[in-house]
Design brief:
six-stranded antiparallel β-barrel; 36% strand; 4 domains; 507 residues; 24% helix; alpha+beta; Thrombin, subunit H; Pdz3 Domain
Length: 507
């Protein structure tokens, strides 16, 4: 065979180059096919899950095997329950009108137009009853049927029904409630062994770790959502012992009272609150808070807490500077309750509490929680800063006096014939008031006991039966103690002068 250029065979150098290119292309194609049909898996470790089969978890700290969440949900869901309640609510009642005619003109109006027409515009509307239904969640903590949930889920309920993951339903009874932490303990009766969840340790929860929420959002039973712990120790203003775990695991209405699990299947929180205008911002009560009060709820149905008799406030940088302090830490004593443990120990207004029973107080909100958890009658040492110098005081912890049930605004209006609201800084600016706390009369019902006694809109309530009113809760607590036909004595500030007013309760 003849070849061009007189060559009688292939060029060895050219043939080698072509072979090399073909081998490289074949290797590339083989690699692509292998990657497509046999994807590479990262190195993984084996994690034993709740005593069951081992589940693969990616060794990379930024990822966890989805199979872990599948197994977690399968194991813990049976211990989570849905709670439905019924509450009978009364509507209607006495109508408050700011521009109701004076008593003399009212009588003339009634005589001229008749009783029925008068009552239609200035009298009372008939009350009616209707059933209010609500949904929530909870979890079983022992085989006797005890269930933890939120207090606001079952408060005032006339009927409580609990539904398990098996769709079986039971009536539940309230064993104990603690409104201050928004926790409640209820119980169902069952002849079968109930599935129980395991309680963890919320103090060991780390920011950034994975958590799972299970509950009954919008009535969709046993919904599972997953996220991470976004923050700890959140104070959202819901109560005196705020110490919430913040999570971005989706929490919605109906999730209240449900558990927040860690990846070991342990309950570390009780889902409680959400930010209505935010996404991925939910709050859970640390399970250790529930651990502390469950024994008392089982035994007494309520919680007894320690108290020392002080009102404290947050120490701001400005306040710290005014007291000559370098750091804005501790709890600033705003007032000392007469006859309390703090007064007996020599605590003064303006002291800054920095240590209590060996525990440092960095933020004001830490002190109420620590004191409340201290046994009543225990002798403790407390360290304060007075005029910038440290001072150690010894005191015996007393029992925190629980305020009586504060009447709702509607109930207080009907019973006393007047409406009282908080004096906020904004309201004080608008009305040019010197006071920035306490209660101001916003409305008086014509012909009511308060009206007959001379109470006027704009009166600032300073005392109720000798009890100082520094905030709206003080007024509500004082009114809550008043019995039927008991005389109520008010000290009110009207303009630049103080006056006493008295009338009988018609509650």
């Amino acid at each position: 065979m003849a070849f061009e250029n007189g060559r009688t065979g292939p060029n060895p150098q050219r043939f080698g180059m072509i072979s090399l290119v073909m081998v490289a292309l074949a290797g590339l194609v083989a690699g692509l096919l292998t990657a497509f049909f046999f994807p590479t898996r990262s190195m993984s470790s084996q994690v034993e899950f709740m005593g069951t089969k081992k589940v693969s978890v990616a060794a990379s700290p930024s990822s966890i095997s989805p199979q872990l969440f599948v197994e977690l949900a399968r194991r813990v869901k049976p211990g989570v329950v849905n709670i439905s309640t019924k509450k009978v609510v009364k509507g209607g009642g006495r109508v408050f009108r700011q521009f109701s005619p004076p008593s003399r003109e009212r009588d003339l109006f009634r005589d001229f137009f008749g009783e029925e027409f008068f009552n239609r515009f200035f009298g009372e509307t008939p009350q009616r009853e209707f059933v209010q239904r609500s949904l929530g969640s909870g979890f079983i903590i022992d085989k006797d049927g005890y269930i933890i949930t939120n207090n606001h889920v079952i408060e005032g309920a006339s009927e409580i029904r609990v539904r398990l993951s098996t769709e079986k339903e039971f009536d539940a009874e309230i064993i104990g409630r603690d409104p201050k932490t928004d926790l409640a303990l209820i119980k169902i009766k069952s002849w079968n062994n109930l599935p129980v969840v395991k309680l963890g340790d919320s103090d060991k929860v780390e920011i950034g770790e994975w958590v799972m929420a299970i509950g009954n959002p919008f009535g969709l039973s046993h919904t599972v959502t997953v996220g991470i712990v976004s923050a700890k120790g959140r104070v959202i203003g819901s109560g005196p012992y705020d110490d919430f775990i913040q999570t971005d695991a989706s929490i919605n209405p109906g999730n209240s009272g449900g558990p927040l699990f860690n990846i070991n299947g342990e309950v570390v929180g009780i889902n409680t609150a959400i930010v209505a205008t935010g996404q991925g911002i939910g709050f859970a009560i640390p399970i250790n808070v529930a651990r502390e009060i469950i024994p008392q709820l089982k035994k007494k149905g309520k919680v007894t807490r320690g108290g020392i008799g002080v009102y404290v406030q947050k120490m701001t940088p400005e306040l710290a500077k005014s007291f000559g302090l370098e750091k804005g830490e501790g709890a600033l004593v705003a007032d000392v309750i007469a006859g309390g443990a703090a007064e007996t120990a020599g605590v003064r207004r303006g002291d800054v509490i920095i240590r209590f029973d060996g525990k440092e107080i960095h933020e004001m909100n830490e002190l109420p929680r620590i004191v409340a958890a201290t046994p009543v009658g225990k002798d403790v040492e407390m360290e304060v800063l007075r005029d910038g110098k440290p001072l150690k005081l010894k005191l015996k912890v007393g029992e925190l006096k629980e305020e009586g049930p504060a009447p709702t605004e509607e109930k207080a209006e009907v019973e006393m014939g007047m409406s009282v609201q908080e004096i906020t800084p904004e309201l004080a600016r608008q009305l040019r008031l010197k006071e920035t706390g306490g209660g101001i009369v916003s409305k008086v019902e014509s012909g009511s006991p308060a009206d007959e006694a001379g109470v006027q809109r704009g009166d600032i309530i300073q005392e109720v039966n000798g009890q100082a009113i520094r905030r709206l809760s003080d007024y509500q607590a004082a009114i809550g103690k008043v019995k039927k036909d008991e005389v109520i004595r008010l000290l009110v500030k009207r303009g630049e002068r103080n006056i006493f007013l008295a009338f009988r309760s018609n509650r």
